[in-house]
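Raw record, unedited: Cyclohex-1-ene-1-carbonyl-CoA dehydrogenase
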Amino acid sequence: MLLDEQYKEIRDMVKKFSDTEILPFAQQVDHEGHLPQSQIQKLADNGFLGSYVPEEYGGAGMDYMSYSLIVEEISRNCASTGVFVSAHTSLGIWPILNFGTEAQKKKYLPKMASGEWIGCFCLSEPNAGSDAGSLTTFAEDKGDHWEINGVKNWITNGKEAGVCIVFAKTKKTPDYKGISCFIVETTTPGFSIIKEEDKLGIRGSSTCQLAFDKVKVPKDALLGDLEKGFRVAMATLDGGRIGIASQALGIAQGAFDYAIRYTKQRVQFGAPLSDLQGIQFMLADMSTKIGASRLLIYHASALKDAGQPYSKESAQAKLFASESAMWITTKAIQLCGGNGYTREYPVERMFRDAKITEIYEGTSEVQRMVIASSELKAVH
């Protein structure tokens, strides 16, 4: 699909920001393992942390297509920064925007859009990953408040977060039917960070194990209806998958751009590598996968903006874009030879960053389950 002028302007604006403010620090972010506060502030100042938050709540008032472009262009230069924006926006802001009361929206969205409060999404646990229904975190009704106890794993933005979207059982059931959702501020007594993961890739993005030890939250911290938290989680992940697909696309585009420049400059056997037909075939396949990924992402984003069902399409976008990113970054290293295997060259970082896009917010296997289930239901 073709982007209209409005989206082209947004893309060009974010591209310029990414090349100026993100690219120069990408290697440093990876090596040091954290995002500088100054960079987070610049993201907020440019409206990237509240892109589709309505202006009445302090956001930029954009749509989901614009958000996808933002994540793509930032991730092209730094996937750690890209997932920071994606998790905060898709997983932290979106459920409040779509399931929150008016009071919750007014309290949280302005501070989240401004970057004062960073959001995170607390669903996974040590023994509950893809099988979200088996979580054991429990929220007990104490009359005038809820008391939450449990441990959450693999929480992106866990270190920076001021607000957690927490899923807990409020009724002891063997499946997802007893899950409710809560908004928990990280300054609440009993909240703590147990550890920060030492990861293969997206090393500048914090991934934490969080503890909730007798955390007391007010009754109005419930997000959505009681025992309907699984619906909140699944709806949030549907949109979040578009964000991760956009991150994967950005990584793939960045690796491809570097491979193009390298093969045009690198001379072997008296000619640039790019003159060799075998190299050209590899570049053609990389370009085609990127183009197909982009169309799938834009299609899912357009459906979401139009208020149409998009669960299958978001799963398709994430599945294809993430697996393409892994393939493309692998080929980018191959094209750069021994140089590509060193940390001096960015394709090594992009290769490490790409792998997680096949895992978080639903593994590739889960995406295939979602897609197949949708197709089987559609045929009678």
